[in-house]
Amino acid sequence: MLWVPTILIALGILLIFVEILILPGFGAAGVPGIIIFLVGIGMIWSKSGYVTALLYASVALVFVIPMSIMCLNLLKDSSVGKSLILSASERSEEGFQAAPQGLTALVGKSGKTVTPLRPAGVAIINGQRVDIVTQGEFVAPETEVEVILVEGSRVVVRSL
Fold first, then answer.
1. What backbone phi and psi angles, to 5 degrees, belong to 131?
2. I want to staple 9 with a disulfide (CB 3.0 to 4.6 A). Which of 2, 15, 40, 135 is the partner?
3. Is 13 helix (H, G, I), strand (E, B) or coil?
4. β-strand 144-151 against 128-133: which pairing, if any?
């Protein structure tokens, strides 16, 4: 029986699966997995031919992938898995705040700066206090500015 090559094929598939699902990047487990997989295929191919090698690889693939998925589900509930998986989340109750939704309505509106803009500062636009930024120029306080662009929470202005 060809146990050693079969185990090598299964181990190679498992390492490639780990590389895809768990480890970031490429190389830590993927390259050794590919090499071990190819060595196992080569060992079977040299003894029994390519048809047998492909059959063994297919059978190993059919068994290794479902077993890996089951083990991964068990791992995420274990203490080791909980130390590997980030469980922190950003909730508004804990202080996280997303960018204000109404900022895009400020495009084309004008207001007055409260602080000097070097290039960032604060202005009152449409009666609300807004953090703003210029395109690089210095703007003195109490200067009229117009909103020319909003990207997320970044409000870009120019002086009038």
1. -75, 125
2. 40
3. helix
4. unpaired
Q: Enumerate residue ranges in the chain where pLDDT < 70.
A: 1, 92, 95-100
12 neighbors 36 (Cβ within 8 angstroms): yes
| pTM value surpassing 0.70 | no
- DSSP letters of 74-97? HHHHSHHHHHHS------GGGT--
Cα distance between residue 156 and residue 160, in whole Å: 13
Q: How far apart are CA 135 and CA 145, in angstroms?
A: 12
Place of tokens 């185990």: 7
CA 132 to chain centre: 29
Judge contact between 41 and 24, C-beta under 8 A: no
pLDDT in tens, 37-63: 899 888 888 888 889 888 888 888 888
pLDDT score recorded for residue 74: 85
* φ/ψ (deg, to 5) at 33: -60, -45
CA dihedral 142, 145, 149, 152 (to 10 degrees): 20
Tokens of 120: 């960032």
